[in-house]
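Chapter review: from sequence to fold.
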Amino acid sequence: MKSYKYVGPNDLLELVKTVSKGEKILSHQDVINWIKDTDQELDADNQVIATYIVDLDKILFIADRHSEHVVCAGGENVLSAGEITFSVEGSKVTVSEVTNQSTGYCPEPESWPHVKEALDKADLESPDSFGREFVFRRCEKCGLLNVVKENWFVCVECDEDLSHSWNVN
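The token string follows.
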């Protein structure tokens, strides 16, 4: 079981000391309570986007979309991280989209099964895969973290070819 350690800036890691960990989600009611308790606003489609992580116990945690994944995780390693979109109709909550967009942890698209297992544990209807998959690579020449787009494995900073294998840690 592959886990991901935090690879982002140290100043964001310091936030773990002062900001609470994300909200543990074990049911749709936990999502409803989080929306109310944190004054989240649903958009015109009755949706809200949150930051999420899946911890090493395969439990989903969420936080405000503008918060850091490392804070949501309490600084711990994760099985996946990204953004999650909840659709809310009355007391019914479904998951309409999930991504692996986290430059703090850079999880691979292959982390999806852990997300699906955490959503299933919480009895949340969800898609069968990430809606948008992000591929992260570190440039071995200049050290820059790159988001690979359209299978173009070239560093945006120094034009060096990027590894086709995950190399972020």
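Two observations follow directly from the output. Helices lie at 10-14, 28-37, 69-72, 112-121. The chain has two domains: 10-121, 135-169.
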